[in-house]
Amino acid sequence: MTETTAETIRIVEVGPRDGLQNETAIIPTATKVSLIERLADAGHCCIEATSFVSPKWIPQLADASEVFSAIEKRPGVRYQVLVPNLQGLERALAVGVREIAVFTAASEAFSQHNIHASIDQSIERFRPLLDRLQGTGVNVRGYVSTVLGCPYQGAVPVADVVRVASALQALGCYEISLGDTIGVGTPRQARALLCAVAEVVPMAQLAVHFHDTRGQALANVYACIEAGVRVVDASVAGLGGCPYAAGASGNLASEDLVYMLHGCGYRTGVDLDRLVQVGRWISTELHRENGAKLGRAWKP
Ligand code: HMG
Ligand code: MG
Hints:
Blueprint: E1 10-13, H1 15-19, H2 29-41, E2 46-51, H3 64-70, E3 78-82, H4 86-94, E4 99-105, H5 108-115, H6 119-133, E5 139-145, H7 158-171, E6 175-180, H8 187-198, E7 206-210, H9 217-226, E8 231-234, H10 254-263, H11 272-285, H12 293-297
Bound molecules: 3-hydroxy-3-methylglutaryl-coenzyme A and magnesium ion.
3-hydroxy-3-methylglutaryl-coenzyme A binds at residues 18, 21, 51-58, 84-85, 87-88, 91, 103, 114-116, 143, 145, 179, 181, 209, 211, 242, 244.
């Protein structure tokens, strides 16, 4: 690929939400705000800032309103937030959120553990959200979790993923992110799954979201990019996990993803050096090992 034909891969930086929801220590609101601002400074155009779920279940992000209100919103940067129900939506709208993400799963067992509802109930729960947002210009993204395996039921049929992704698109989600919540998938499986979903939801409306529990995330992303996906979720310093998926480690580290993409000639808009500095900073703040390989190897 030459300079003139370089394609752009849009990265959705989920560290402030997917990463911080799983930390055991209470993180100061100011640290969360600073993380989001530093990620924007590093060139991220899409940042999942926080989550308006029940603080009873995710106390780590109970300060969602304070965080969202405090961040300096940069022109050209989209700040999305996770929303599970109308109660969360009203909280989000009250602080000026312009993009939300709803989430469900391809496995019944995971859905019950994560949101105490069946898959179909969760989709019905989203319907009034979409109705409420009619005419507001607020965009809705959709997540499907456990697309390549479930911590409770094991294998997840591809047909179940296709059905749920298609239902979210029919509801009005502009983009569907396919989540390997527990990082069990391997590249050919990931690619086959993406291609199966792309038969019913256009590839341009799909994103991929790999947790790196078994070191497969970067290879899975590469396989999916070869198959045509152009939106990839990742998390600075590989922060992350899901409190309802024991053992699930962090997401694919944004630094490692950006390094690979730039090395392959893709554009991301992200300044790798600045991103590495953000990853080192947040790892120090959280007293955790930097989950990005590049966090250790990078020398500008
Ligand atoms: P529920 O537990 O079934 O019960 O909630 P509820 O609806 O009766 O609510 C329980 C209490 O929470 C009530 O308060 C509600 O008012 C309150 P109480 O009467 O006990 O004082 N409540 C809320 N408060 C503030 N904001 C709200 C809200 N909703 C209820 N929005 C619910 C169902 C889905 C809300 C709950 O189970 C929940 O919040 N679960 C959180 C699940 C979660 O955040 N999981 C992690 C994110 S998903 C993920 O990480 C996967 C992803 O990364 C993709 C991938 O990796 O695959 C996206
Ligand atoms: Mg996740």
